Amino acid sequence: MNKDKKAFTDDAAEEFETSWTLENAMHVVRHPTVDAQIWAEAVEWLLLYGPEEIQEILRSASLYAAGVHFPDLKPAGCTPAGDLCYSLAEIASVLRIDSDQALLLLKEKEQSHGVRHGFDEDEVYKLQ
Hints:
The protein is mainly α. It has helices at 11-18, 22-30, 36-49, 52-69, 88-95, 99-113, and strands at residues 77-78, 84-85, 125-126.
C-alpha cells in the first residue's frame, strides 16, 4: 500500500487517522460480534497506521481472502514499492459494479485515507 500522504492532505484524512487508536482498533477486530462496517473501518485504519507486523498479517489475510472469494482477480502489476496493483475494470467486474462506480469508490478511499491507492498503468511494473 502506497503511503504517499503528501499527495492527499485534507481534513477528512486527518479525521480518519485520528478517529482510531491502536488499542480501539485491535479491540474491534478481536470482538466476536462487532458490526461489519465498524470492523472494516478498524481494519482499514490498521492497514494504514497500525504497526508493520499487523499490517503484514492483514495484507496476507486480504490476499488469501481475495484468492478464495475472487479467484479470477489477478494482480496486473506492482508499484515500485512492491505493492500489488489490480485493474480497476477487473475489480469492478468481480464486484458487479460499473467502472465509474469503482473509480468513485477508489477516489473516496483516497480522500478519506489521505493515501494514494490508484495508479496509472505507466506507473506500475507489469507482472508476467
